[in-house]
Design goal:
- By secondary structure, this protein is of the alpha/beta class.
- It has a single domain, classed as TIM Barrel.
- It has helices spanning 13-19, 39-47, 63-72, 76-94, 113-127, 153-166, 210-215, 236-248, 267-280, and strands spanning 3-7, 28-32, 52-56, 98-100, 137-144, 191-197, 219-227, 254-260.
- Strands 1-2-3-4-5-6-7-8 form an eight-stranded parallel barrel, surrounded by four helices.
- Helix 5 packs across helix 6 (153-166).
- The protein is globular.
Length: 288
């Protein structure tokens, strides 16, 4: 079954919560992980019974840079403990099912690619041992169209996920890990890829294209972006086609509708449109 969610703007979350009241088409919301540091957000999330399908920017800056800083300061265990605490809060209160963070994979020099992907794979593998109350996934974000023609973001993301799935958590990362009594005894999920799609930036390949064929075994989430303030939207026929193709391929993940730069006065109409798109992803009754 394909779950659906809708991205909410961080600064307008009260208006989004009001618009989503009694809306049952979506499995949850997608929001910035930083919102889980706000007491009022946590209170209203719990009171409204709203689930957070995905929390982005668990680390708001680029992951390699944060790791470099932690290693220089001999603070790798403290980094894990801080992230574990943030993930525990998000999972406990918001029922978060997945997290992501910016890996900036295109910035890795070619000569450092193998070593850096192994380091990042170990980091991802260890995060999956966060002591939370339910399983979750860690997602590596990539985008289509590609950031630039020679971008290797997608192929590197595939390598990162494949390596992280096979990497033991005790692999060396140039720093100590947290003590065993402060982490889970087992992995809570699997590393997967979150594909951010920007339809208005150009012609996109279909699900049988080279990029998506490469991604398919690792694909955990698709995010369809559109700039509401610029008059962009998603189209019913395109969403219906995506839904049909994803169901044909047995996609087991989540589709997120991402209305970027959405003014408050447009929230109600955006939610109404997304409810229609969400229905396309429901299981076909004739196939059950």
């Amino acid at each position: 079954m394909i779950d659906t969610a809708i991205k909410i703007e961080d600064h307008d979350w009260p208006q989004w919560f009001a618009a989503l009241n009694y809306v049952h088409e979506f499995g949850g919301i997608e929001c910035d992980a930083g919102l889980f540091e706000q007491a009022e957000f946590l209170s209203q999330l719990k009171a409204g019974g709203i689930h957070c399908t995905h929390a982005r920017n668990l680390i708001p800056d680029d992951v390699p840079g944060i790791l470099d800083t932690a290693q220089r300061n001999h603070a790798v265990p403290q980094l894990y403990e801080r992230l574990y605490a943030a993930m525990d809060t998000a999972c406990s209160v918001g029922d978060v099912q997945s997290f992501s963070m910016p890996f900036r994979l295109d910035r890795i020099p070619k000569e450092e690619e193998d070593a850096e992907l192994r380091r990042l794979a170990t980091f991802v593998s260890r995060l999956l041992f966060a002591p939370v109350n339910h399983a979750f996934n860690l997602l590596v974000p990539v985008r289509l169209p590609r950031p630039f023609p020679s971008s290797e973001e997608i192929s590197r993301a595939v390598r990162l996920c494949a390596t992280a799935r096979e990497t033991p958590a005790d692999s060396n990362i140039n720093g100590d890990w947290v003590p065993s009594d402060k982490r889970s005894a087992f992995k809570n999920g699997i590393p997967s890829i979150c594909l951010h799609i920007y339809p208005d930036e150009g012609i996109l390949p279909d699900f049988n294209s080279l990029d998506l064929h490469l991604l398919q075994p690792f694909l955990g989430m698709l995010c369809f972006h559109y700039n509401v303030n610029a008059g962009e939207t998603l189209f019913d026929d395109e969403q219906e086609q995506w839904a049909t193709r994803l169901k044909e391929h047995g996609f087991p993940g989540t589709v997120v509708f991402c209305p970027d730069q959405c003014p408050p006065e447009a929230i109600d109409s955006v939610v109404t449109a997304a409810r229609t798109w969400s229905n396309f992803y429901l299981p076909d009754p004739t196939q059950e």
